[in-house]
Design brief:
The chain is mainly beta. It has helices at residues 3-25, 125-128, 269-274; strands at 38-39, 45-46, 53-57, 60-64, 72-73, 76-77, 86-88, 96-101, 104-111, 114-120, 143-159, 168-180, 183-191, 198-202, 216-220, 227-231. It folds into two domains: 31-128, Tumour Suppressor Smad4 (Sandwich), CATH 2.60.200; 131-274, no CATH class. It contains three helices and 16 strands. The strands form four sheets. The protein has a six-stranded antiparallel sheet, with no helix packed on it. Strands 1-10-9-8 form a four-stranded antiparallel sheet, with no helix packed on it. Strands 2-3-4-7 form a four-stranded antiparallel sheet, with no helix packed on it. The relative contact order is 0.15.
């Protein structure tokens, strides 16, 4: 394959990936559809955007519905005797369940040790007005080879969050070492969602200028020998780049890179408009 053909294929593969990622982001009940962020307490409280009154105690969430109100889970109607509570939990950290009320999906989740409720509605203004996310043109120079070096023992790593008052604790199995712009660099990696994958949160010298200031994320999959491809063209924004109703983690301090990575997603149009 000629160099020109290889670059054309690289560009086409990136465009296909980016289109699919944008389609996923604009799902009718994705994070752009979140209308409210509620933190649950022990006192039964009505929540805007969700039916019933909600409370949590001893890792159990209780919801009391009024007559005519409805909640479904996995397509099944949830029923309780008059005045009795529906109960959910315990939910593991960073886990969650989806409940449905009419056209609204109600996310019940646990973040930073606290329970949250986030209603998601397809008519949310942020979703309806979404203009897409700009990105740098794909550049093969930012697809670099690295090596995953496991720690002797996985390290619990505490990081801040996009909202004040909570922290996230992730297990870091190791770091990825690589070279970019003539510098030897390393990134602490967390376990990813998919088996065998790693998630890297980072900032760089474009952060707050052309890319979102707080963080970007890159998912990688090391080979058996530890070799890994870091394709920064596929660095993406987390939900906090779009909405203040997100609890996204911030990168660990060592993942603040001293180089400018002019690849991947840029500041969303919505945030640009707010400047």
């Amino acid at each position: 394959m000629s160099t020109e053909t290889a670059l054309e294929t690289f560009d086409a593969d990136w465009q296909e990936w980016h289109t699919a990622h944008e389609r996923h982001r604009a799902h009718p009940h994705g994070f752009l559809a979140v209308t409210h962020l509620h933190w649950l307490g022990s006192e039964a409280t009505p929540l805007e955007g969700a039916p019933g009154t909600w409370s949590v105690e001893a890792d159990v969430v209780r919801v009391v519905l009024e007559p005519g109100e409805s909640l479904q889970q996995d397509g099944k109607e949830l029923n309780a005797d008059a005045g009795a509570a529906l109960e959910f939990g315990p939910i593991e950290e960073r886990g969650g369940i989806n409940l449905v009320s009419g056209d609204t999906v109600i996310e019940l989740a646990k973040r930073g040790g606290e329970y949250i409720v986030r209603p998601r509605h397809p008519d949310n203004e942020l979703l309806r007005g979404y203009q897409g996310t700009p990105a740098y043109s794909p550049d093969a120079a930012y697809a670099v080879r690295g090596t995953f070096v496991p720690f002797e023992v996985p390290r619990p790593t505490t990081v801040g969050a996009a909202v004040e008052g909570i922290q996230h604790v992730y297990e870091a199995p190791g770091e990825i070492r690589f070279k970019l712009a003539g510098q030897e660099l390393a990134l602490t990696a967390f376990n990813g969602h998919a088996p065998g994958s790693l998630s890297v949160l980072f900032t760089d010298q474009t952060s707050g200028k052309t890319t979102y200031a707080a963080n970007r994320s890159l998912t990688v999959a090391p080979a058996v020998d530890g070799s890994v491809l870091l394709d920064f063209n596929r660095a993406v924004n987390l939900p906090c780049a779009y909405t203040d109703l997100a609890t996204c983690p911030l990168p660990p301090a060592e993942n603040r890179l001293p180089v400018a990575i002019e690849a991947g997603e840029k500041i969303p149009y919505e945030r640009q408009d707010q400047k």
